[in-house]
Each structure stands twice: as structure tokens, then as C-alpha cells.
Amino acid sequence: MKTYAHLFLQRAEHGGDSKALLYRRDGGWHEMTWRDFSRQVRRAAQSLLTFGVEAQDRVAVWSHNQPRWTVVDVACQYVRAVSVPVYPTVTARQAAYILKDCEAKVIFVGSEDQLSRALTVMNELPHVKAVVRLDDAHGEASSENVLGFETFLALGDAASWADGVSARLAEACPEDLLTLIYTSGTTGEPKGVMLTQSNVLYQMTSHEERIPPCGTSDVSLCFLPLSHVFERTWTYYVFHKGMTNAYLDDPKLVMEALAHVQPTIMCTVPRLLEKVYGAVQEKVHSAPSFRQSLFRWAVSVGDEVFRRHKDGVAVPAGLRLQHRLASALVLKKLQGLFGGRIRFMPCAGAPLSAEIERFFCAVGIPIVCGYGLTETTATVTCHEPKGFSFGTVGRPLPGQDVRLDRVSREILVRGPNVMKGYYNKPEATAAVFTEDGYFRTGDAGTFDPYGELVITDRIKDLFKTSGGKYIAPQMIETLIGADPAVEQIAVVGEGRKCVTALIVPSFENLQGLLAEKGLAGLPREELVRHPVVMEFFGRKIDELTRDLAPHEKIVRFALLPKEFSLEDGEMTPTLKLKRRVILERYAAVIEAMYREIDRATAHGTPDKASSAGGSTGGVARGV
Fold it and tell me: In which element (H, E) is residue 524 found?
């Protein structure tokens, strides 16, 4: 096949009136057949031609997840245009940078809010021919350049436009740009990653050789943003294999959607797994002792069975019997949290603790951990079905060459998945490639004795204390963040004498403790300053970090009443911390921690517990 569009056409022809996708509307879930799906793609492609969209022109999609997102995306490929996703939550100013840089000819928006933001910057975008609404809002909005989606589709219904689409498809080739995906800009301005048709075609075949077989009986829940390469590339694979894709427009409703859709596969990120794990552990902790014992026994049986399966070791008859009993009493209920039919879940975007990964595998929800970047068209490495090790991100996919820099241990990648470069940024492109053509990922790692990659940290996140000691914050955050009591954590200490941390407690998982201590019902702002809560976290962090080197231990921490969020600009769309934003926003809290350390040191009692009040959170000794 020359392009992904050709793969899609082939699958659509086979699909006919079978179910291609599900979507949520008016509180219910609805189906769309392959025939209707393919027809909408063809009509959208024809309509793009009416606006003079030429081969390799850019078309922006600024929307939450919905079927029309993919309709537009594939329609662009039909006419050899380049789709440019814009994260649905970005500000008008952030979107304007992307839309100007790529010179988008048409902008598709998913909601009234995105439309209003787009219209505020239209005077800066003379290259835009039209803004098309993907929602079904009544009326055509307040601008002559704004069209409803059905009106847009009708523009291309003339037969002559159909011939134009066929001609473009015949000219399409693997070297065509498929998309520009702008990096989230955690540092500096966003860069447009140029991914080609050949990059995506490689990922279609490479995954077939690595992950468990997928097919028409599978249902995938699409809840991570399609604006990001992970869910986007996976969606391509979903349709390539004939699976049903269930689009979730609001990721906050993921647990509700899991119960209804009952997917067999779903891409996920550690954040979701950590929250579910924490909630389960808290519920078990508050249960009667006999139920706690039953839970631990069932999970240990599941762990032994899964370990044997993955390592190719036979499961004795007695253990199989125990596993059936454990499933009936405990494990099936836990599987029910994810709909009860999950076969496996690809997981990437941030480090996942080996403890949490092993737990989900033990209860019958296999996690396929992987590693990749936008610049590598998502996956570089991932677990194999057999023989992998917990805590790693697996081996490189077939055809990829992955090595480590001898000095920095930076992960270097060369292969058919690596981007063409950064759009309009030749100097930035040159800076991320070695002389022999390897892409510099910016991540540090190591290979275990079995050839599986272990991510140690993001190189740009590594920092040095004033004493010259290097700190890997992600390692510490993964260690502490796996505890059910911790919702989020950001490690601090660059250029400082020691390490501190900003911690958001999991208030939901602390309900048992708060009730026991008579603190239930207190506002979060009071809880984060309460001595009982601060003492609890002091002991907790002391326990979790006991095996760290002295210079890695957390000397003070601040408890915060509010989560870091995407809406507040503190996290990326894949829920990574934006450290620079967090450090700036909580500068006063951080300074208060280090003043406490200085005072304690001056009095000769650096390990004495202390606290400092404030409107943002409590400060306490961490170890």
C-alpha cells in the first residue's frame, strides 16, 4: 500500500454495513457503519477541494475526540493534504501560533468555545479560507467564513469533485507528509513534527509483529486526545485491523464509558492506572481483615498465574483451580472496573511503577508498557507478549535501531518511524540528529540484561543540587506517586542545597484516615496544613524513600489542596508535569520550604519536624 488512505479504503470496502465506530451524543451511544463512515470521508475530501486545498496544503483540526475528527483527518489524506491537530484546550494565542506557522487553509473546530477562540485571531490568519464546525449546533455562527459540517459536506457533492479526489489518491505516495503535530511546548515555542505516510505505514506493520493479534471482534475506547500521537496512531491501527473505535468526547467520563462500551483494548496513561490502583487499595484498607486477606490471596494467585504465562511456564492443575476460585471471588470484580472484557492495554506517556503494572497484570488486565515520542510516530519499544520484565518498556520494534549515548546515556533512535524533521526549523532539526542519523530523544535510559529498555529520566528534567549531586526527579516521583495516598508529586531542588517536593494528597483515598482522626469534612485548605495529615505524609515519605541515597531524599514537602491540571496549564495533554510552570506558580511555597530548612539548620536541628502556614498548602519535614 502506498499510503494509509489506501489501507483505509481497503478496510472500508470489506467493512460494508458492519460497525466501524461508536460515539456519544445526547447521553447515549450510537453506531456508525463502515459504509457511512467511508462516505463521509469521501464527501469531506471532495469539499476540501472546493476551498482550493492543494496537495500538501495544511488543514487544522481543533477539537475534542469525535468521529468527525477522523473523518477530516483521513479526508485530508485522500487529497494529499496535511492535517494539523490542535489540542482542544489550548488558548487562542497558543492556537494562533500553530495556525500561522503551518498556514492552515481550513480550520475545523469541535465546539462553540473553540470557535469563539478561533474567531478572535482570524484577523491574523489571512490564509484561512473557512472555519468549519464539527458539532451540530443550530445556525451557521456569526461569520460568513464559518460553516456547519453538513453545509461543508454538501459543497463537494458535485461529480467533478469526486474525480478530483480520485486523481489525488492516484498521485499519493509514501513520502507525502501526513501530519504536522506540534509539540506541547513544555520548554520554548512548539515545533511542528513532520510525519510522513511511510512513518505511519511502518507502525501499522511493526505492531502486528509485536502486540497480541487484533481484529474485527475488538472494541477500543478512544479517550486520550487524538491531538496526541499516541491515540492518533493507535486509531489508525484500530481501523486498519477492522476494530470498532469508541470515541469519548470527555475524558473525565472514562470510567462511565468503560462500563457501557466494555472495550477489549484501550490505550491508557499511568495517571489513570494510578488513580484506579489507589482507589482499590484504599477500599481494601478499610475492609474487614478477612476481606483484606482474601484480596491479597487472590492477587497473589493471579500474579503467579500471569508470571507463568508470560514466562512460558506451565500452570499446575492446583494453581489453575485456585485461580478460578480467585477470579470468581475477587479478580472478576476488579476486571469489571474496566468493563470486564479488556484483553490488554497499551500504556505510555510517562513512567509506570513496576508495582502498579504487576498488580493490573495479576488481576487479569494485562498492561503493555511502551515508549515513544511524537518524533518517532509513537512507539519505539514495547513489551512482547511473552518474556518481558516489569518496570521496563520492552524491546525495540522490528526494524528500529536503538542505542545509548556512551556519556549521557541518552536514548538514540534510527528507523522508519523517525520524523522527517521540524517544520520551518532546519536548525532545530539538525540539533536533534547525530552525525550518523540517530534521533536524540532527550530521554536517558539503560538496557537490562535481557535487552529491554528502562527509562531512567528525561534529560532536561535532571537537575543538580548546589552540592553538585545529580537528581532524577521522575524516578523519585514514580516511586512516591505509586502510593495510594499520593495524587500527584513534583520534585524540586535544582541549584538548592537539598531536595523538596510539592505533593497533592489523594483526598478521596484518605477518607478512612480522616474519619478515624475526626477530620472528615474539613476543607482541603485546612487539611493540607493540619499536623495530623502532615505527620502522616512525613512517615509515608520516610518509608517510601528509605532505599534512596541521602542526597535523593526529600527533606521538606508542601501539601497542596488542588491538583495540577491541564486546564491550568500545569500539565501537558498526556498528563506530564510542566515543571517550569509549576515552579513559577508555586514559587512562594517553594521558598517557604527552603526558609524552613535554613532556619532548622541555623538552630542545629535540620531533622526536626516543622510547619509553615500559607494559603496554598502546608510545609513539613519529609524524612
Answer: helix 524-527
Which ranges of 327-438 does DSSP label H, i.e. alpha helix? 332-335, 354-362, 426-431
Strand order in the sheet with 618-621: 486-492, 499-505, 554-559, 618-621
For residue 338, pLDDT over 60 is answered with yes
| pLDDT in the model for residue 609 | 33
Q: Residue 241's CB: how many other CB atoms inside 10 A?
A: 18
List, in sequence order, every beta strand (DSSP E) within 493-536.
Answer: 499-505
Residues of the chain with pLDDT > 70, as a percent, come to: 94
> Residue 145 pLDDT more than 90?
no
- DSSP labels for 263-309? -SB--B-HHHHHHHHHHHHHHHHTS-HHHHHHHHHHHHHHHHHHHHH
Q: What pLDDT does residue 605 have?
A: 56
Q: How many CB atoms lie within 10 A of CB 178?
A: 27
Q: Give the separation between CA 364 and CA 440, rounded to whole angstroms.
A: 36
SS3 assignment, position 414: strand
> 129 exposed, middle or buried (CB, 10 Å; 0-12, 13-18, 19+)?
middle
Instruction: Average the pLDDT over each of 16-25, 394-403, 493-502, 603-612 and give the range with the smallest value.
Output: 603-612
Q: What is the pLDDT of residue 566?
A: 82
d(C-alpha 536, C-alpha 527), whole Å: 12
**Same domain for 409 and 319:** yes
All three cell numbers of 255: 470510567
Question: Could you tell me how many residues make up the chain?
Answer: 623
**Cβ contact 456:444 at 8 Å:** yes
Element (H, E) at 58: strand 58-62
Residues 217 and 277 in one domain: no
Residue 583 lies in a domain: yes
Mean pLDDT of 146-155: 94
Pull the grid cell for residue 560: 497542596
Residues 412 and 507 in one domain: no
Q: Contact 179/423 with Cβ under 8 angstroms? A: no
Strand order in the sheet with 130-133: 146-148, 130-133, 106-109, 58-62, 82-86, 177-182, 192-196, 421-422
User: What is the pLDDT confidence band of residue 138, given thresholds at 50, 70 and 90?
Assistant: low
Do 395 and 512 have their domain in common?
no
Q: Which residue segment(s) compose the domain that 510 sits in? A: 462-621
| Cα angle, residue 478 at apex, residues 474 and 483 outer, rounded to 5° | 150
Note whether 23 and 123 are same-domain residues. Answer: yes
pLDDT at 618 over 70: no
Distance, CA of 188 to CA of 335 (rounded, Å)? 42
Cell 542505542, residue? 403
Q: What is the CATH number of the domain that holds 53?
A: 3.40.50.12780
What is the three-state SS of 117-154? Answer: HHHHCHHHCCCCCEEEECCCCCCCCCCCCEEEHHHHHH
CB distance 189 to 534 below 8 Å = no
Tens of pLDDT, residue by residue over 225-268, are 999 999 999 999 999 999 999 999 999 999 999 999 999 999 99
In this structure, are 473 and 522 located in the same domain?
yes
> Which cell goes with 474?
521522575
Number of domains, the chain: 3
- Close Cβ partners of 321 (under 8 Å, ≥ 6 residues apart): none
Q: Which amino acid appears at position 349 of this protein?
A: G
